[in-house]
Amino acid sequence: MYTKLYEYKPINDDKIINKVIFDIDLDLNMKHTIDFETPVTTNYAINEAEKYLSGKLTKTYLKANPQIAEYWSRSMNKDKNYNWLDIYKIKGDLLQDHYFLEELYIKNGVLTFFCGS
Predict the structure, then answer these.
(1) What whole-number distance in Å separates Cα of residue 34 and Cα of residue 45?
(2) pLDDT tens readout for residues 103-112
(3) Is 52 within 8 Å of 32 (Cβ atoms)?
(4) How far apart are CA 73 and CA 84, in angstroms?
(5) Is residue 94 predicted with pLDDT exceeding 90?
(6) What is the per-residue burial (b if ≥16 Cβ within 10 Å, else e) of 44-64?
(7) What percent of the chain lies above the pLDDT cut of 70?
(8) Fewer CB within 10 Å, N or C, the chain?
């Protein structure tokens, strides 16, 4: 993920983030939440989201998120010789070309960010 904030300001180093919410599939408008046991910095929360998105796209993940598997199978497997899992290897691949941290909000200890291209 790359930072593309138009009015970028240094991110606060205070430990104020209790959870981070971020996109995991833009076509389905799905988000994922990571809760932290104790408050963390904004940078730490973003790094944890990056770790999550860098994780392998496994059958276990798809079983836990059946709407993702169903959507992508239906959308990309029109050719029976084609398997979308041959192209998409990590969870972040489902964001397609939206690899940039475009918007970031912090409210009541919740960091929410959106990816763009």
Answers:
(1) 8
(2) 788 899 999 9
(3) yes
(4) 7
(5) no
(6) bbbebbeebbeeebeeeebee
(7) 75
(8) C
Residue with tokens 């904004």: 42
Count of CA atoms in the C-beta half-sphere (13 A) of 86: 6
- Check residue 43 and give left, alpha or beta (phi > 0: left; psi -120 to 50: alpha): alpha
User: Nearest CA to 46 among 7, 14, 19?
Assistant: 19
Residue 6, number of CB atoms within 10 A of its CB? 6
Q: Which residues contact 48 (CB under 8 A, 6 or more apart)?
A: 20, 34, 36, 40
Q: Which helix (H) or strand (E) holds 48?
A: helix 42-54
- Quick: pLDDT tens for 19-29: 999 988 877 78
Instruction: State the pLDDT at residue 32.
Output: 92
Please name the residues in contact with 63: beta carbons below 8 A apart, sequence gap of 6 or more.
69
Is the separation of the CB atoms in 111 and 47 below 8 Å? Answer: no
